[in-house]
Amino acid sequence: MNVLEIQNLTKKFGDFIAVDNMSLSVAEGEIFGFLGTNGAGKSTTINMIAGLLRSNDGTIEILGKNSRFAKMNLGMVPQDLAIYEDMTAFENVKFFAGLYGLRGNLLKERVEEALEFVGLEDKHKSYPKSFSGGMKRRLNIACSIAHRPKLIIMDEPTVGIDPQSRNYILNSVRKLNEMGCTIIYTSHYMEEVEEICTRVAIIDHGKIIAEGTKDQLKSIITNTKDIWIEVRSAEQLNLESVKEIHGVEAVQLEDNVLKINSDTGVNNLNKIIEHLINHQIEIRSCEEKAPNLETVFLTLTGRNLRDH
Ligand SMILES: Nc1ncnc2c1ncn2[C@@H]1O[C@H](COP(=O)(O)OP(=O)(O)O)[C@@H](O)[C@H]1O
Ligand SMILES: [Mg+2]
């Protein structure tokens, strides 16, 4: 069964098209990744799914129903923290769970369950202002899961937090999924999406430019490989001259590592190394990289996910 079905969804801000005729379906049990740079249109799409923003065109169905009914089955973890600083952690979760109609003992049990789930069980009486960024994020998650939604949408839940909280959040996504929740996970961090998502949509300029399992997406680009050459300094090197070598598709320099995307059908490693030596470039190491979603993004858009 499809938990989410979007058809021809469009959102304009004035003349600007933020979401452009997007269609998408997410099946029960998936951890579905929305991957794209800042400004790609991820939050706009998600806010329309959650009913926080009106679309200009298109339809959204959650569990086969229009989104108003479906809100009870939806948990939304917004990109900007939605917690009250002057209420305790317990009161925050209780407030949000109460909005979904939970009352009395059941409400109390579910609030405790949600706080325990995010590892804040000993912070019931603490105020968010004493929390680290990661703890606030975890509280934000507790607020959106206490009513046990079937579909949970997380909008960049790991931006600007410490690695420990990040791992905690990624593990909790997996655990929620094992418990039967379908998850939509939005991020501009390729590694995270690659690590936890079962299927991914790559979003760019309001459009899905590629969609599928990680392997399906990588198969788009199996005709290229990445060669990383670490050099002492590449000041004397004109990157454009490397691009002229037969088979080379793209070249980037990042912290003294030349990242070369090259046609798998052409054995040009000798030529590349010869070229570097001819330009008095000192080579420190050389390795071939398996393709990842970053490479997919670069191949499809000509841009780097990280540059944004
Ligand atoms: N309320 C708004 N008014 C005008 N433009 C907006 C508004 N919200 C988002 N945008 C624009 O829409 C585009 C997509 O934004 P957003 O969905 O937040 O991207 P993402 O979440 O992928 O970073 C951006 O160019 C952004 O500036
Ligand atoms: Mg966003």
Could you describe the 3D structure shown?
There is one protein chain. This protein is α/β, with parallel strands linked by helices and 308 residues long. It folds into 2 domains: 2-219, Rossmann fold, CATH 3.40.50.300; 223-290, YebC, transcriptional regulation domain (Alpha-Beta Plaits), CATH 3.30.70. 33% of the residues lie in helices and 30% in strands. It has 11 helices and 14 strands. The strands form 3 sheets. It has a 6-stranded mixed beta sheet with strand order 6-7-8-3-9-10, sandwiched between helices. A 4-stranded antiparallel beta sheet has the order 2-1-4-5. Strand 1 and strand 2 form a beta hairpin. Helix 3 (89-99) crosses helix 4 (104-117). The structure holds adenosine-5'-diphosphate and magnesium ion. Magnesium ion is lined by residues 42-43, 79, 155-156.
Keywords:
Rossmann fold; Alpha-Beta Plaits; four-stranded antiparallel β-sheet; alpha/beta; binds magnesium ion; six-stranded mixed β-sheet; 308 residues; binds adenosine-5'-diphosphate
SSE pattern: EEEHEEHEHHHEHEHEEHEHEEHEH
**Number of DSSP helical runs:** 11
Kindly report the CATH topology of the largest domain. Rossmann fold
- Class per helix and strand makeup: alpha/beta
Reading side by side through the largest sheet, how are the strands ordered? 6-7-8-3-9-10
Shape type: elongated
Major sheet details: 6 strands, mixed
Strand content: 25-35%
Radius of gyration: 23 Å
Instruction: Provide the helix percentage.
Output: 25-40%
Number of domains: 2
The CATH C-level name of the largest domain is: Alpha Beta
First-last Cα distance: 36 Å
